[in-house]
Amino acid sequence: MKTLRRQDTRIPRRPLLWLAVALLFALPPMFGTLPSWVPLLFLIALTAKFWMQPKGYHLRSLFWKVVLVALILSLLFFSYGSLRGIEPGVSLIVMLTSVKILEAHTAREFHIMIMVAWVLCLCGFFLSQNLAIALCLLIAFTLLLVALIQFHRGSSSAFWPPVRTAGKLLAQAAPLIVLLFLFFPRFSTGFRFQIASQRGSSTGFSDHLSPGSVSSLTNSSEVAFRAEFPDGKIPTLGAMYWRGVVMWHCEGLEWNAPKNPAALPKTSQSSLRSEGVRQWITIEAHDARWMFALDWPANWPSGARLAPGDYLWSDQPIHKARRYEVTSYPEIPNNQLHSGEREPLLQLPAAISPAARALVQSWTAGKAEPRAIVEKALEFFRAQGFLYSPSPGEYGKNGLDEFLFHRRLGFCEHYAASFATLMRLAGVPARVVTGYLGGEYNEIGHFFLVRQADAHAWCEVWFPDRGWQRVDPTAVVAPDRVNLGFSSFLERRAAAGQLDNTQGVLARKLARWPIFARARLGWQTLSYAWDTRVLSFDGDEQESFFTAIGIAGRGPIFFIVGSLLVAIALLALYTGWTHLRTRACGDRIKRIYESFCRKAARLGAPRNPSEGPLDFSRRAMRLLPNDSERIRSIAEAYIALRYAPASDPMTLEQFAKAVSAFVRAS
Amino acid sequence: MDEKAAQDLLHQRSFIGRPMHSTLLASDRDPEIRFDTKKQIAAFTNQICEVIVGKTEAVKLAVACLLARGHLLIEDIPGVGKTTLSQALARSLGLAFQRIQFTSDLLPADILGNSIFDRNEQRFVFHQGPLFSQVVLIDEVNRATAKTQSALLEAMEEHQISADGVTYELPRPFFVIATQNPQYQVGTFPLPESQLDRFLMRIELGVPDRASERAMLLGMDRREMLKELNPVFGAETLLEIQAKVRTIHTSSALLDYLQDLLDASRQRHRSGLSPRAGLALLHASQAWAMMNGRDMVLPEDIQAVGTAVMAHRLGHDIEQSGQSGRTLAAALLNSVPVP
Amino acid sequence: MRQGGSSKSSFPLAPTRSFAGLLFVLAAIWYAASSQNNAASYLLLFALMSVFLVSIPRTLLNLGGLQATAESIKPAFAGQEVSLPVEVTNESRATRYGIALTLPDLGDAGEHIDEIPAGKAARTVLRFPAATRGEHQIGRLHLTSVYPLGFLQVLKQLSTPQRYVVYPKPAGDQRLPAETARSGQRSSRRELGEGDDFAGVRAYVRGESQRHIDWKAVARGQALMTKQFTAESDGMLYLDLAAVQLDDLEARLSQLALWVIEAERARRPYGLRLPAAEIPPSLGESHLHGCLHALALFQ
């Protein structure tokens, strides 16, 4: 019990400390997405605040405030070229928060800082929504609550109680959060502000295949997508070719996909001979339009189309994680190749070296079958000392020849591109497919995690009798890559001493410890659940949820009012319960006496808390002459019950009766 | 009155007892007897009130203090009837009375007694000091040095005196009424804080109101009236009543309240009420309850005696709080809720 | 003397200034979440909303079982501060936090109690300036709390029937006026008892100090005799309103207040004579306050 005179309006140190820690937890999403000077300046402002606060300094002068804001605006403008878009906006908010931190001085401004910190949390979610960031922001949110609670607790300096209170608040809020999340209607406000797209260019996949475009991804552990097989039919790892984009246009070792492919008409499933494999795929945002599915998708989700080459193509760029269901079949249903189609499939770059032509001619001699040509070509890769390496080095202008006849060192894109080019030279229609191969199975969440490092490129060739067939030249050169998955392949290599990346080896060894492996799987599962259950729950999902529980089709007002009413009812219950739990309690005699006192107070004779029963009854009798007899007998009974040596149990009942008669009397 | 006469008087009076009272008090729980005790006490109180006009409250507190076997401290300016009150108490009880004026040169032996060499018997004879009496009025207790004060307070607490290796029991009942002038007079030795609470109560008599003063001015001389006072009951009866006071019931609810008061005082003040103060409050309120003819203590009883019992025990917080003990005690009683 | 707090219903729950800020932040998050269709932002919105909703019962109940008792107020002189000691008792079974006490009728006096554990009490002293002489009423006492989040304020209004007295500001001439003795009384009397001047002997009375026994006389075989001394003593001092030579009533009352204090300090018994009342000469704390009280209430 300490009392404090709130004369100095300075922010107490402890809440400020909590706030600062909360702000630190709001920072991680900004590193990596914003220019690094933004969070750094923010950190500096925060540190400066702790230096300034005990000394009573704060940013006072309006001139300097204006100068600072102008400086920030111009810095941002130079760094982004514009102040529009989400990242400049977030940067601006962060920088203005820094200024506010320097300026805030009074207790009232503490509240403003808390609110600004909440807005910072919001900004964090705009920059990234993955589970790690969400947890960081949850911690930040909780710490903000702690800061607020500590602020209102004043000088009590205990560490845990405010944390516990904040935890309790959050725990009690949790059911309400779930309720609101499920039922609160998701409007779509017509206007969307533009998110400047800066991703995709750096990571992932592209519609252009060139030497090094896939191998550049081998070090990226970023998640590309996750896949679940709801029917439990899981293909072998070696057959798990996730189809991304099909490249038609050949430039030797470089291939290109069409920028905006047309849509294929829907085919009926009856024409398919074998059973399909159903997949649920949760794709991470990549800001482009390709979507992945196992070879070969035939049943695609809404909002997407099947492009020529049998790959999925989204109608809209994928700016946020998206979950879809697709069914794939082991064969491509449409086996016809029209005459108009055949020609682009044999398109070749103008400059093909005589050596390459000679090589191909050695295969096609004697009117060989396409199948035989493929066999010969694969035999060539197998027998001529080709090596598989994630870092094959640069290939120059005449890359095809250099690869085929000199260095013979390449990654999957080299093999796929050169193989397809050679097939076209041999008159066999061929195309390159890029996508992913394999994935990491998570036995806790029962899903496959496919990373950017699993990116792969392979070929498809046309046989007149069988139609399109997948041919993966990499499988010939490095069968383990295909059958074990990329990471296992690298581990095996490392074990054989073929990689001298010691750091990576250490990390991998650590990762193979059971605890770490388990934790990693658990984390991935959580992350998957976060993406699929929470992040993907948008207006459409909500609509289907309402349909599932049979309350669809009502207006948003119904849901707003309904969810708020339920929330208020829950709160009322909670309030009543807490009140019962915490209210002043006493024994029965005292409770009865208190009801008597309340009634007397209503009648105009309130009892002072420090007034004894005899004094009170005398005063009450004087104030309420009509009831004086009753009051006298009640007081006598009360005194006898409470203060006399031994009381008759009968007296208690009489007392209770007398009081209830008095209370009921009008 | 010479020494021998006084001694005779003391012996004579201490054995004046009415057998009726002792038989009446034999049975404890008979309401009629309680009523009678109440009547007796009331008659006793009234008789004193006739002498000390307009001070009913103070007189009642003094009687309660006597019944609770406590000692009384009266803090007031001279001439408001302190001596008269104590003499009236003594005479109405038929008890021996002594008055000691404390001065700065008073030595402990002056109040306890001296061993004087008797030439006839050729040995030291202990001449009992003025403290060997049943009702002792000590005037201006804060004029004596700390040494003398301590001797007095010890005797009050122990009910006995040790001199030259011999322990002398003080007579029973033994009731000390000490008066002191307000603290801030020159040449006073304030009673040590720790010893102040040997006094059960501290009361103030104060100047009588106008009507009472007029009655006093018109009426008989106080000293004359004192002479005419007859003992209402004797020492024997008083001892029995004192014993009975301790049997007045205190329920747990009441003890809760008492402890709340003690807790509150300890919480608020640097030095709160001591456990001895708690006992004092209890005994005083028991006496008060008995005076009101009840066989149980009510919070009202505690409140009635509370200020008198607590004020001088809280008073030494004055520098800290800037409030007198009376104010603090009243504040305590006004703020601690009755459970 | 005794003051209790009885709760009166008044508007119990009101938004604070930062509530507007919260609404703004909620609206901003809602707008941003819906325009981006960003589920994580929605989650933030709902978390903030829910935490706020859940905090309402806490705020609402934070004053439950609290009783404030104003204690008696020490009189103050005009121009000084009046201190109102308030004890807040927590009769509930939960700890209460962040309680502010204000006196809405008496300016912006306010105190803050950080924490009262269950069943305990906390004390604080509200201070406000004593403006004018006389007896005044405290009026309302507000208990407010914004705990835990500070967006809502819950209010409990208690009425304190308590009155306080403001004494006139002591001012004027410090010298006490000349004694005004009552007619028929000696202007100076000699008081027997102590002092330096030997006045004579009288018979010894048991109980008297043996120090003053005239031992020489005992040695001569006489009875026990006590020596007596006298000291000079001042007479009675009457402070009369009519006798103060000042024009302004307040100034005269101030002068009297100063004299009362000076006389008390000098230990000279003094009386007070006002047109309507007269306080006979005396000394002591209660007499002092009695006189000042009379001056404070003088009409």
Helices and strands of chain C, in N-to-C order? EEHHEEEEEEEEEHEEHEEH
Task: Tell me which oligomeric state these chains represent.
Answer: heterotrimer
Any idea how many domains of chain C? 3
Radius of gyration of chain A: 37 Å
Count up the domains of chain A: 4
List the helices and strands and how they pair.
The complex is a heterotrimer of chains A (666), B (339) and C (299).
Chain A lengths: L2 E2 L8 H14 L10 H16 L9 H19 L5 H18 L3 H21 L3 H23 L6 H24 L24 E2 L13 E6 L12 E7 L1 E3 L2 E3 L20 E7 L6 E2 L1 E2 L2 E3 L4 E4 L3 E4 L7 E7 L10 H7 L8 H11 L5 H14 L3 E2 L10 H9 L1 E2 L1 H14 L4 E8 L2 E3 L4 E5 L3 E9 L3 E5 L1 H5 L1 H6 L1 H10 L6 H10 L2 H22 L3 H11 L6 H27 L5 H16 L9 H11 L4 H16 L5 H16 L2
Parallel strand pairs in A: 14-15
Antiparallel strand pairs in A: 2-6, 3-7, 3-18, 4-9, 4-16, 5-6, 7-13, 8-12, 10-13, 11-12, 16-19, 17-18, 19-20
Chain B lengths: L2 H12 L4 H6 L6 H21 L4 H12 L4 E4 L6 H12 L3 E5 L6 H5 E6 L4 E6 L6 E5 L6 H13 L1 E4 L2 E4 L5 E6 L12 H4 L4 E3 L6 H9 L3 H7 L6 H11 L6 H17 L6 H17 L7 H16 L3 H4 L3 H11 L4
Chain C lengths: L5 E3 L4 E3 L1 H20 L2 H23 L4 E5 L5 E2 L3 E10 L5 E7 L7 E7 L4 E9 L4 E12 L6 E16 L21 E15 L11 H5 L5 E9 L3 E4 L8 H17 L4 E4 L4 E5 L2 H13 L2
Parallel strand pairs in C: 4-10, 13-14
Antiparallel strand pairs in C: 1-10, 2-10, 3-5, 5-8, 6-7, 6-9, 9-10, 11-12, 14-15
